[in-house]
Structure formats: structure tokens, C-alpha cells
């Protein structure tokens, strides 16, 4: 049975794969167990890794570091790729406020740590290590160690303080989110909706009764209204047609118009009378609306279309058809001429049956093509993300450069590739299940290696008197500021709990807590909020610990 022992004990590439896989499998199985209706999910992998490390299980250090870093990079890059399409619109609608709240959490946590040094037998360098562990911010720990070394102070104990408080720092944010949801949050404060790139389009019927637009072309009307709209059908004297930009409107024409909800009232003034028919009901049979036109969905699967604008395809002029709606990842988008199509988009085309048959080869409409993995965007994005994370940023008054690191660089690059990749004709489409698989594998690898690395000396340090005190302080620094800022955000700023949870996870640099928030809260608001605040708050903590040491020692 020596061969079996070698599989688990003798350090090799195969032994590393087996150990990490077993830790992940056991942790994921135990993570499904619910206690008081709560399960930790993939986070349990972390605790299984700590226990395995405590009992002497180990793998080659280089293999351990590689698997840990690779898992983290894959997780955060896939997350950025997912939230990228809606990220910038989210920032424009509340990103500044979220970042300010995230920074307030960072400042409150640091203030609590500094105040505790006045009342407890913990020196400031050790407290800064505890602070880094409580906020799961290893780049900040590196800044602490380098600043202390410049001052000629030993940097060993801060690293130990970070190591023993890191595990409860991971769990503390999760427990804080659970506590807030159970005690303070009402169901109405948990938004069930996903973040949308644009407001959901609304379909409205108008009768032209405004004499000011009589005999005006659609292009002329669009020019002076400043409203985005699409006229999918025009009824005139019992006939139906698809208007082009040069079509002139007559009095008493009936128009079926798709626009944003905010523009409906303005268009009411422009066109005239609004019909009371509800054209937004889910059970409408569009092919029964009139006999001459057919409404049919197509899936964009032709790679040459990826990144092109709707206007550049000239479908209305060349084929006599109109695009009434576009669905991206289930989210309806307004089909404006400047909307860039992406692989996987579902577009609703209105026109005559013969014209629609000609459209299909242009768009692709081959669903099986979407099953093929588009790995180029993933691997090239990871390379660029790591390179971005290694760029040093120099700030006045701070002697050491600040870097985004392996967690910050890839998530920002994922956002950029997800948002702008199609404009460069890069295929960034991945199915939701494929993205979730990448994130789950990456996070499980990261947690297994992190736990295995922490477990060797974890219990030994915790059961020392100063170690136990560090753990208690770290847990306090994690949970109390998180709950205080979280409740104030929901109750005071009226921000939904999904966004708040993501903001808290991003400010505390805690991807494990984000995974819990994603699995327990509806929509993708938590992921977008996390990506919104993470870079700035990570920078801020790195700078704040250096300022605290330089000013208070």
C-alpha cells in the first residue's frame, strides 16, 4: 500500500491535485448542511483546508502558491466578465455614492482598530496586522511590513496577527450579512431585479394628432425630440407597413412605438393621442396582430456581426424589416441604431415572411454555435489583468508603490473586456452556467489552498493568550463596522440590500462573502456593487495603514 500512501504524503504534482481536490470535495459537501436555515456553501472549503493543514497535510509550497493565485485570478476575472456589460451604467447611477460608503467602512474599521490600542494590551504594529486579517486584505499587510521595515521595527508579529484573524475575517462578513438580513432587513428592501444596462423598454401605441409633425419624416421628428424610440409598425387606412427614417407621418396614423418608460410622456406630447391598449403583456401573439407582418426572434451567432451596431447593418433599408427589441442575458434593450450587437443576443425582427427568411443567414441563428467555449477572451484577459495588477502606482507622501495585485487587476480587466471587447470584435460571450462554473472552480481552489496554508500554525497561535485576543479583536473589527455601515446604507440611504451586501464585500475585499451573497440574494446587484467599490477601497486600505503607522508610531 506504499503507492496509496505516496498519493497523499509524498509531495508531487499528482499529490497536490489529489489533496486540493479532496479538500474541495469535502468542503463543498459539508457546505450544503444547513444550521438554523443557513449554509456556508463553498466557504466551508476554507475550514476543511485549515483542519487538513492543522493535522499535517501539506503540498509543495510552489504548487500551493500557484493553485491559490490561479484560483483567485480565475474567480475575479470571470466575475468582472459577467458584470462588465452593465458596470459603467451602474457606476453612473450611484457608483460615487457606493464608493463613498465603502470608504467610510474602511475608515471606521481603521478608527476602531486605533482606538482599541488605547484600551487593550496590543501594540499598533500588531493591531495593523490584525486589521489586515479582519479585512482580508493581504496587499495592506505587505504595505504594513514594508513600512515597519523602513522604520527598523520587526514585521513578524503583524503577519502572525493577520494569519490568525483572516479565517474569521472571511466568515465575519458572511455572518454580518446574515445577521442584518435576519434582524434589520425587510423583504421589500431586498431587490429582486438584476442590474440592467438600460431601462426596460416599453411598447406604446400612439395616434398622430399633433399638427406640428404632419408630413414630417421620422428622422426629422427624432432629431428635435431628443428621445430614443423605434417605430415597429405603422397603420394607415387599414394597411400596415414598417416605416423608415424617410417615411412621412400623416394625421391619424397609428404607430407602435418602443421606447424607455421615461420617454413615453414626451412622445405622448410629440405624437398626440396615446392608445390604452396594453402592448407589454406577456401573452400577446404578435403574429396575430396583423396578417401582413410577422414578428420572429433570431439569435446572433455569426461572429462577423459581433460588435457591429444595429444601424450599420441597414436591415430596414435593405430588407424592409425592423428590429423592435433586443434581449441580452434575458435583459430587454432598446434597439437604437448605436446599440452594438454581441454574440448570444436575441433580437425580435418585424417584417414580411419572405424578408425574414433572408435575415436568418445574416444573423446566424445557429444556437449550437453558442455551446462552443470562447477561451481566447478568457486567457488573454487573464494575462492582461495580471499585467495591470503588477503596475506600480506612486502617491505623494507614500514611499512605497501601490499595486492592484492579483485580485484587483484581473477584475478590472474582466470588466473592460466584458464591456468593450465586442467593440474590438472580441467574442466575450459565455453562457451563465459556464461563467458560474469558472467562478466556482476558481474560488474553491483559492479557499482550499488558503486554508491549507493557514492551518499549520492556526490553532497553535489561537490558543496562546495574545493569539486569542487577536482573534476576538479581529472578529469585532469585521462584524461590527460591517453591520453598522450596512444597516445605515439600507435604512439611511435607501439602497437595496443586494447592492449593500456587494458593497460591503467589496469594501472588505472578501470574494468569499460575495459568493455567499450571490447564492442567497436574487439578481446580480451584489456582483456589480462589489466590482464598483473594490479597486478604490483596496487602494485606500493600503494607503491608510501606512499613514496610521507613520503618524502614530
How would you characterize this protein structure?
The chain has a five-stranded antiparallel beta sheet with strand order 3-2-4-1-5. The protein has a domain at 202-370: Regulator of K+ conductance, C-terminal domain (Alpha-Beta Plaits, 2-Layer Sandwich). A hairpin with a 2-residue loop joins strand 7 (322-328) and strand 8 (331-334). Helix 5 (95-119) packs antiparallel against helix 18 (465-492), helix 6 runs antiparallel to helix 7 and helix 14 (376-389) packs across helix 15. The model is unreliable at 194-198 (pLDDT under 50). The protein has helices at 2-8, 13-30, 44-54, 61-92, 95-119, 124-134, 138-150, 156-183, 218-225, 264-271, 310-313, 315-319, 353-363, 376-389, 405-420, 432-455, 458-462, 465-492, 497-507, 511-520, 525-552; strands at 202-208, 229-236, 239-241, 254-259, 272-274, 294-299, 322-328, 331-334, 346-351. Helix content is 57%, strand content 9%. It has 553 residues and is α+β, with helices and mostly antiparallel strands. It starts with a helix and ends with a helix.
Amino acid at each position: 500500500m506504499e503507492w496509496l500512501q505516496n498519493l497523499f504524503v509524498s509531495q508531487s504534482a499528482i499529490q497536490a491535485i489529489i489533496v486540493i481536490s479532496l479538500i474541495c470535495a469535502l468542503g463543498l459537501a459539508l457546505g450544503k448542511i444547513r444550521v438554523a436555515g443557513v449554509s456556508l456553501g463553498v466557504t466551508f472549503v476554507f475550514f476543511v483546508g485549515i483542519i487538513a493543514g492543522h493535522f499535517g497535510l501539506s503540498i509543495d509550497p510552489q504548487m500551493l502558491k500557484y493553485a491559490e493565485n490561479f484560483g483567485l485570478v480565475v474567480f475575479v476575472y470571470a466575475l468582472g466578465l459577467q458584470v462588465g456589460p452593465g458596470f459603467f451604467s451602474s457606476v453612473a447611477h450611484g457608483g460615487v455614492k457606493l464608493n463613498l460608503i465603502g470608504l467610510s467602512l474602511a475608515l471606521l474599521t481603521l478608527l476602531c482598530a486605533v482606538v482599541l490600542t488605547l484600551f487593550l494590551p496590543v501594540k499598533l504594529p500588531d493591531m495593523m496586522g490584525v486589521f489586515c486579517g479582519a479585512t482580508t486584505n493581504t496587499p495592506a499587510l505587505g504595505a504594513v511590513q514594508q513600512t515597519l521595515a523602513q522604520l527598523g521595527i520587526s514585521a513578524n508579529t503583524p503577519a502572525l496577527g493577520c494569519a490568525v484573524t483572516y479565517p474569521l475575517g472571511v466568515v465575519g462578513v458572511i455572518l454580518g450579512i446574515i445577521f442584518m438580513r435576519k434582524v434589520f432587513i425587510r423583504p421589500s428592501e431586498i431587490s429582486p431585479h438584476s442590474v440592467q444596462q438600460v431601462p426596460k423598454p416599453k411598447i406604446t401605441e400612439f395616434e398622430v394628432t399633433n399638427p406640428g409633425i404632419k408630413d414630417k419624416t421620422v428622422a426629422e421628428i427624432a432629431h428635435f425630440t431628443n428621445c430614443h424610440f423605434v417605430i415597429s409598425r405603422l397603420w394607415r387606412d387599414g394597411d400596415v407597413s414598417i416605416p423608415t427614417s424617410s417615411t412621412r407621418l400623416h394625421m391619424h396614423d397609428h404607430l407602435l412605438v418602443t421606447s424607455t418608460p421615461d420617454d413615453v410622456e414626451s412622445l405622448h406630447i410629440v405624437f398626440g393621442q396615446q392608445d390604452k391598449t396594453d402592448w407589454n403583456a406577456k401573452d400577446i401573439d404578435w403574429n396575430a396582430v396583423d396578417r401582413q407582418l410577422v414578428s420572429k426572434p433570431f439569435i446572433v451567432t455569426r461572429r462577423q456581426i459581433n460588435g457591429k451596431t444595429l444601424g450599420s447593418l441597414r436591415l430596414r433599408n435593405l430588407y424592409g424589416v425592423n428590429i423592435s427589441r433586443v434581449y441580452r442575458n434575458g435583459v430587454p434593450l432598446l434597439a437604437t441604431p448605436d446599440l452594438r450587437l454581441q454574440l448570444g443576443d436575441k433580437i425580435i425582427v418585424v417584417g414580411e415572411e419572405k424578408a425574414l427568411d433572408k435575415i436568418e443567414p445574416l444573423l446566424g441563428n445557429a444556437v449550437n454555435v453558442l455551446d462552443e467555449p470562447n477561451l481566447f477572451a478568457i486567457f488573454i484577459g487573464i494575462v492582461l489583468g495580471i499585467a495591470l495588477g503588477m503596475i506600480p502606482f506612486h502617491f505623494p507622501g507614500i514611499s512605497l508603490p501601490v499595486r492592484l495585485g492579483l485580485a484587483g487587476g484581473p477584475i478590472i480587466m474582466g470588466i473592460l473586456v466584458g464591456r468593450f471587447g465586442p467593440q474590438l470584435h472580441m467574442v466575450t460571450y459565455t453562457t451563465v452556467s459556464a461563467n458560474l462554473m469558472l467562478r466556482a472552480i476558481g474560488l474553491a481552489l483559492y479557499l482550499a489552498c488558503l486554508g491549507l496554508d493557514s492551518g499549520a500554525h492556526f490553532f497553535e497561535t489561537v490558543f496562546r493568550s495574545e493569539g486569542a485576543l487577536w482573534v476576538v479583536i479581529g472578529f469585532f473589527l469585521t462584524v461590527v463596522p460591517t453591520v453598522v455601515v450596512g444597516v445605515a446604507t439600507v435604512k439611511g440611504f435607501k439602497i437595496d440590500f443586494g447592492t449593500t451586501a456587494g458593497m460591503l464585500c467589496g469594501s472588505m475585499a472578501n470574494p468569499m462573502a460575495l459568493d455567499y451573497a450571490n447564492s442567497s440574494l436574487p439578481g446580480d446587484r451584489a456582483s456589480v456593487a462589489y466590482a464598483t467599490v473594490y479597486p478604490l477601497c483596496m487602494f485606500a486600505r493600503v494607503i491608510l495603514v501606512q499613514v496610521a503607522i507613520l503618524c502614530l508610531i
